[in-house]
Amino acid sequence: MPGFTRGFKGRARTEGRNRLPPGQYDTGKQWPVLTAEVTPKLPTGSWSFTVEGLVERPTTWTWDEIHALPPSTYQGDIHCVTTWSKFDMTFTGVSVDTLLDAAGPRPTASFVLAFSHTGYTTNLPLADVTGGQAWVVWDAEGKPLSADHGGPARLLVPHLYFWKSAKYVAGLRLPRPRRAGLLGAQRVPRPG
């Protein structure tokens, strides 16, 4: 086989697993725990979720209030930029569409900043979290989401791998647009 080291033919794909993206490996029953910060203890009695910024009705939900919203389930595969994939996962929570509908994004909103109770943030185009593509989830595989995996609740944006699925999510901020190249710019006088 030209182009391969002798004896190496790449990672084998098992029957029915052709949905494994290139460079990824199937973790089987394992769900790797990756963290960029200390795992917090967030009691649901004081947990909240807020949608703010360029919205008509900034809204905050308590744990009980967000659970009273229409539930939504994601069933599918999850993938991480650290090269692992896990097939046939089930997450339950609420669709980001439901949360945004309650808050009413303004027409000028085009991005979302997801923020966590720990201070972690990640930004996404608004188009990547709407149209049934993103959820705030609190159950995984029929059980409460563990703290190691972002519980009590995390953002789930499966089409963007897990790097945009913020753990310990506390809210979504729809920021004001900024013009490219002007952030922090100062006027400098021209010489003479």
Low-confidence stretches: 1-16, 181-192
Query: How far is the N terminus from the C terminus?
Result: 67 Å
Summed over residues and divided by their number, the pLDDT gives a mean of 83
Note the total helix count.
2
Shape by Cα distribution: globular
Helix content: under 10%
Question: What keywords describe this structure?
Answer:
mainly beta; 5-stranded mixed beta sheet; 11 strands; single chain; 192 residues; disordered C terminus; 2 helices; 6-stranded mixed beta sheet
Quick recap:
The protein has 192 residues and is mainly beta. The protein has two helices and eleven strands.
List the helices and strands and how they pair.
Layout: E1 25-26, E2 48-53, E3 59-62, H1 63-67, E4 72-79, E5 84-95, H2 96-103, E6 111-116, E7 121-125, E8 135-140, E9 143-144, E10 154-156, E11 169-174
Parallel strand pairs: 1-5, 2-11
Antiparallel strand pairs: 2-3, 4-5, 5-8, 6-7, 6-11, 8-9, 8-10
3D architecture notes:
With 192 residues, this protein is mainly beta. Helices cover 7% and strands 31% of the residues. It contains two helices and eleven strands. The strands form two sheets. Strands 1, 4, 5, 8, 9 and 10 form a six-stranded mixed beta sheet that branches. A five-stranded mixed beta sheet has the order 3-2-11-6-7. A hairpin with a 2-residue loop joins strand 8 (135-140) and strand 9 (143-144). The longest helix is centred in the middle third of the chain and has 8 residues, at 96-103. It is globular, with a radius of gyration of 20 Å. The termini are far apart. Residues 1-16 and 181-192 have low confidence and may be disordered.
